[in-house]
Specification:
This protein has a single domain (19-148), classed as Substrate Binding Domain Of Dnak, Chain:A, Domain 2 (Up-down Bundle), CATH 1.20.1270. It contains 6 helices and no strands. The radius of gyration is 18 Å and the shape is globular. It has helices at 2-15, 20-29, 40-48, 54-82, 88-119, 125-148. The protein is mainly alpha-helical and 153 residues long. The longest helix has 32 residues, at 88-119. Helix 1 (2-15) packs across helix 5 and helix 3 packs across helix 4 (54-82).
Length: 153
């Protein structure tokens, strides 16, 4: 238990040192300008086949993350609705879910930013950042869906 608390405190303290401007840059790097003549289905096929240069691959990685984030948000809204009942028990559970999610989000940012920094000046750092966020988001969505909603896909 103490190891978990120590880990969380370390993650929270590291997050204070994350360069906010650099994180904003990562998100802006992945541009969809290459895909202006394609519809969503064509972009999906393109991204699934990993064509293109670094900018296109960054965009595809960001797009995959955004899809996993959208699925997560849908599940999270369902959980919040389930526990919005007026009883004291549900209020306590909801408070813990909100706190847990806030800590998880901080962990996700620190973990993926750390992977980004480890790669350093490598050309794949933006793609790695979005891949990390996508994988952690998918894992979190699955855990929350199965545990809080009892739904196993």
């Amino acid at each position: 238990m103490m190891q978990n608390i120590s880990f969380i405190l370390i993650c929270l303290s590291i997050s204070l040192f994350a360069n906010v401007n650099e994180l904003a840059y990562i998100s802006k790097t992945a541009s969809n300008s290459y895909f202006t003549d394609m519809n969503n289905s064509e972009i999906d096929v393109y991204c699934d086949e990993h064509h293109g240069g670094r900018m296109e691959q960054d965009f595809c990685a960001k797009r995959i993350f955004e899809k996993s984030e959208s699925q997560f948000n849908s599940t999270y809204k369902s959980i919040l609705n389930k526990y919005k009942l007026p009883s004291d028990r549900e209020k306590k559970i909801l408070k813990k879910i909100l706190k847990s999610q806030s800590l998880w989000f901080q962990y996700q940012e620190v973990e993926c930013y750390t992977q980004y920094k480890i790669i350093g000046d490598g050309t794949m750092k933006n793609e790695a950042y979005f891949w990390c966020k996508s994988q952690l988001t998918k894992e979190r969505e699955k855990l929350m869906r199965e545990f809080y909603l009892g739904i196993d896909k």
